[in-house]
Amino acid sequence: MSTLEQWTEILRCPHCESEGSTTLSQLEGSFDVMVEKISEGFEAVQFEYGVNFRCAPCGIPVRK
After folding, report:
1. Are the CB atoms for 39 and 20 separated by under 8 Å?
2. Looking at the domain assignment, is residue 26 inside a domain?
3. Under a CB-based contact definition with an 8 Å cutoff, are residues 61 and 13 in contact?
4. Residue 30 has what pLDDT?
5. Do residues 47 and 31 touch, judged by C-beta distance below 8 A?
6. Is residue 11 domain-resident?
7. ∠ CA(21), CA(27), CA(32), 5° rounding?
8. What residues contact residue 14 under an 8 Å CB cut-off, 6+ apart?
9. What's the structural domain count of the chain?
């Protein structure tokens, strides 16, 4: 049986300085990261090699 690992990352927009968080999870042995929760005002964008986050109002990538 696989173990589910969860962690939280802080998100901050470099333009408007909004702050939020996201909770991510990953099954042991898997490269796929799943977004469990994300603060209002932020969006998760799935790419072929992972997940990136952006500020919804500004439309720019955020810092983790």
Report:
1. yes
2. yes
3. no
4. 87
5. no
6. yes
7. 70
8. 60, 62, 63
9. 1
